[in-house]
Amino acid sequence: MRKSLAIVLAMILVFGNIGFANVQSVLGAEIETEAASAILMDAASGQILYEKESHKELAPASVTKLMTLLVAADAVANGKVKLTDKVTGSENASKLGGSQIYLKAGETFSLEEMLYAIAVGSANDGCVAVAEHIDGTHEAFVEEMNAKAKALGLENTHFANAYGLPAEGHYTSAFDLAVIAKEALKYPLIRKLTSTKEYDLRDGKFKLWNTNKLLWWYAGADGFKTGWTNEAKYCLASTVERDGLRMICVVMGVPQVRGHFAESMKIYNYGFAKYVFKQFAPAQQKQGVVKVQKGSEDEVQVITEKPLGVIVEKGKDKNFWVETKLSPEISAPIQKGQKLGEVLLYRDDQLQSSVNLIADHPVGRAGLAEQMTRTLKGVFGY
Asked: What pLDDT, in 10s, does the model give residues 8-55?
């Protein structure tokens, strides 16, 4: 009893001047952050690696534009609009304050240029112009942003505009932004836009510099978006990839100037120190053959569509095993990239990850004469 009391008294002496919140952090491991809300997520699986008040509803400022870019990229992918479309600035767009490209009513840019203005220069006026081009009105586009949030299952998000200036009913959370970022990674266009450090508009007369300084300061950073208002303070949703491990970090409500960069780097450092991506099969690796019926070839090689692997804590990479499932045979024609099976990765008896096995080349359907010849060979042996 006396020994236990002595231990408690010693802890009070050690931690008494730190404060209870920080004692919890020290004892519970690992990391502290000045952000009001934060999260670190594995981009592949969605596994949460660190969080602090991650479901708290907060103003996101210009990090809002990540959803704006997601809805726009989805419209491009679905053929609703094209990057070469001409986007004309409206009177409504030209009146926006805050960060902008000083768009004039009647001024025209390509949709691609406007998306760069949003991603690199955080252009509020560009958001409205793009919204009006895609959905007719800014209000209709915001409805689509909220519909996308609902489709992603976001429970602490509602948008009132496409640019992030303070407005009643405009909020999200660090967790929800991480989910939006995870979805954004499915669109190469978004990473291309948000990883661009500088961009020239108006024939080089107006230069944009990316507001995300992690692109310069932190190896492997290649997205997404910063934000700041008096209400929201400093916010950042970002992604970093090193040695196959891609993580997403969101920090919100950081009080210090440039603190959103410092806090994000601190959290990433923690992630890379603690976790590693363990690869079991690289992309395009041969995994077997599938017999082809009525094809110009008798079989087709199958390969992994993408790398098969999983994030693990360093030193805890045991008890993994792989199961391969292949179609025994398939009828021609076969398209290159057609799914013909999958590889499943387990830890003990729990499924951790899977990748598709796809045809490495197309196989056409054999002509009638060729099929008859094969049949005769099968019957008569010649």
From this structure: 333 333 333 333 233 233 223 478 999 999 999 999 999 999 999 999
**Residue 117 and residue 185 in one domain:** yes
Domain edge (last residue) among 276, 292, 311: 276
pLDDT at 377 over 90: no
Residue of 37, 54, 62, 238 marked active site: 62
CA distances 14 to 3, 4, 5, 11, 19, Å, are 17, 16, 14, 5, 11
Q: Does the active-site annotation cover 377?
A: no
Q: What is the pLDDT of residues 221-264, one digit of tens each?
A: 999 999 999 999 999 999 999 999 999 999 999 999 999 999 99
Residues 222 and 127 in one domain: yes
Catalytic residue among 37, 52, 54, 65: 65
pTM of the model: 0.83
Count structural domains, the chain.
2
Catalytic residue status for 353: no
Residue 183 and residue 286 in one domain: no
Q: Which residue has the tokens 């730190």?
A: 18
CATH number of the domain encompassing residue 62: 3.40.710.10
Q: How far apart are CA 368 and CA 201, in angstroms?
A: 59
Report CA dihedral (363, 369, 375, 376) to the nearest 10 degrees. Answer: -140
Active site residue 52: no
Of the candidates 122, 173, 264, 353, the residue annotated as catalytic is 122
The verdict on 162 and 192 lying in the same domain is yes
How confident is residue 375, by pLDDT bands cut at 50, 70 and 90? low
Question: Of the candidates 227, 247, 276, which is a domain's last residue?
Answer: 276
In this prediction, residue 372 carries a pLDDT of 58
- 332/316 Cα distance (integer angstroms): 44
